[in-house]
């Protein structure tokens, strides 16, 4: 199934080419992050279709738009 994925800030290099990728049905957010070769400690927020999704066991659906954000620092 096809999903859209956008990684932001320091994780931007992990965004799939073209901003989309195929995953098997039942893929969780946690598995997606592994597939993108992102260390889980580098992820602060994950949005699914514009809503914060804190449950890493959430199963992704066809056409979902995923946004992955690192911790943000500043001052």
Descriptive report:
The mean pLDDT is 95. By secondary structure, the chain is mainly beta. The protein has one domain: Beta-grasp domain (Ubiquitin-like (UB roll)). The protein has a five-stranded mixed β-sheet, with no helix packed on it. The termini are far apart. Helix content is 9%, strand content 27%. InterPro entries: Beta-grasp_dom_sf (IPR012675), Mopterin_synth/thiamin_S_b (IPR016155), ThiS/MoaD-like (IPR003749). This is Thiamine biosynthesis protein ThiS.
Topology at a glance:
Blueprint: E1 2-7, E2 20-22, H1 29-35, E3 45-48, E4 51-52, E5 65-69
Parallel strand pairs: 1-5
Antiparallel strand pairs: 1-2, 3-4, 3-5
Pfam families: ThiS
Organism: Desulfoplanes formicivorans
Protein name: Thiamine biosynthesis protein ThiS
Summarize this structure briefly:
With 75 residues, the chain is mostly beta strands. It has one helix spanning 29-35, and strands at residues 2-7, 20-22, 45-48, 51-52, 65-69.
At the third CATH level, what is the topology name?
A: Ubiquitin-like (UB roll)
| Helical percentage | under 10%
CATH architecture: Roll
**Count of folded domains:** 1
Protein name: Thiamine biosynthesis protein ThiS
InterPro entries: Beta-grasp_dom_sf, Mopterin_synth/thiamin_S_b, ThiS/MoaD-like
Organism: Desulfoplanes formicivorans
């Amino acid at each position: 199934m096809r999903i859209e994925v956008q990684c932001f800030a320091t994780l931007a290099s992990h965004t799939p080419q073209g901003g989309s990728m195929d995953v098997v049905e039942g893929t969780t957010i946690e598995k997606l992050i592994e597939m993108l070769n992102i260390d889980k400690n580098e992820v602060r927020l994950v949005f699914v279709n514009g809503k914060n999704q804190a449950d890493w066991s959430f199963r992704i659906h066809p056409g979902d738009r995923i946004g992955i954000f690192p911790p943000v620092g500043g001052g």
